[in-house]
Specification:
A 5-stranded antiparallel β-sheet has the order 4-3-2-1-5. The protein has a single domain, classed as Butyryl-CoA Dehydrogenase, subunit A, domain 3 (Up-down Bundle), CATH 1.20.140.150. It is 66% helix and 13% strand. It is an alpha+beta fold. The protein has 4 helices and 5 strands; from the N terminus they run H-E-E-E-E-H-H-E-H.
């Protein structure tokens, strides 16, 4: 049972770390001379790097908000798991923890979908998707699977 709990916590923490990295690191769209993320657009010309704030469009603000909400809900889910681990009665299920983690996964999925659809308006065609964008898509199934595991999991003594 201890190994199962440890595996669930490791899966949850992995999803949380991926959410942090994908939200903060500047690599949602990249090419050899520039990179863009949710917050800045950075370009390098003749060895000089210049970063400008992100566009103030409604869609990028929606993506920013959804990614931040996914981090908050995933963190709250981890906190609730530890609280429920010590307070939940024997045989009880971790429904609240699972619901928060599933919400976190849906938020990151929604943010990544909005970015995918609206990316062509903001980022130049020569840029490709960066590793932070890919990490956001990897965090989605990890968070969803951990949320499902929480819903299925029963507390034992």
């Amino acid at each position: 049972m201890l190994l199962l709990l440890l595996g669930i916590v490791v899966l949850h923490v992995a999803a949380l770390v991926l959410l942090f990295v994908s939200t903060i690191v500047s690599a949602w769209a990249v090419n050899p001379n520039s990179s863009s993320d949710l917050w800045t657009n950075c370009t390098t010309l003749n060895g000089v790097s210049r970063c400008d704030p992100a566009d103030t469009g409604v869609w990028i603000q929606a993506v920013q908000a959804l990614m931040i909400l996914s981090i908050i809900f995933s963190f709250l889910s981890l906190f609730l798991f530890f609280c429920q681990l010590f307070t939940l009665q024997k045989g009880g299920r971790f429904f609240l923890t699972g619901a928060f983690q599933i919400f976190a996964s849906l938020f990151v999925m929604s943010g990544a979908i909005i970015y995918t659809v609206m990316n062509s308006e903001w980022v130049h065609e020569s840029e490709s998707y960066g590793f932070s964008y890919i990490l956001a898509w990897v965090a989605f199934p990890l968070a969803f699977i951990s949320g499902l595991i929480y819903v299925i999991l029963r507390k034992r003594e």
